[in-house]
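PHD-type domain-containing protein
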Amino acid sequence: AINIMPSVYKCIVCRANLNPDKEINCDECKLYVHTTCSNLSDIELQCLKSKDRSITYQCTKCKCQRKEIRDLVEIITELKSEIESLKKRGANTNDEINAEEIIQETFERQRRSCNLIIYNIEEYHSEDKETRIESDVETAKEIISQISTVSTTDIHVTRLGRPNNVGNKRPLRIAFKNPSDVIDVLRNKFKLKSLYSNSVSISADQTPRQREYLKNLRDQLQVRLANGDNVTIRYMNGVPKIVNVPKK
């Protein structure tokens, strides 16, 4: 909505004083923003000025919050689907899962959604910790850049587990800023096979419950394959499921 407010109000984007003649407010949080900071076109601004307008304006912060809510709902739906699938197959789901456990699992999955795990990467053995970290970061950037165009400028790299004997290879956890970067890399991980044969692999950073679900699913897949079923595991709406392989 277009409003005329005192100049003491500040733009939520640039924090400068608002121009009383050129300002809009978010229909969600009711805070104000310069039209030049709103990323709206002239036509969109004209529509907002219309008395009988049917569109609403949401600031960037409110849009992000709405997306976070949608992401949470998606994770909860995914989790419930996994639980029901396990129950139908008679798998051990550690009894009933209460609401608190679902909430904890939901936030844990959301936290891990920005992470990737890379396996079978040689460790640079040095007494200097910073040198080891720098080596891991450069290795991770090189691998990711070979299969994806996502930015690796701000990634955070950590070795999982305690330092061990020479020759052992602890997994690398790569933390991105956005889950979309993780999805892009996972979609292109098949390219690793031609680059590293089967020596290097990448997976999502799954919770113990996700790993339990996938293990049960793979066990079920092996049983069905042994019985002659032409099936495989495919991800449907983010949930891995056993599906029939279409006949050629």
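thats it. The chain has a mean pLDDT of 80. The two ends are 56 Å apart (CA to CA). bye
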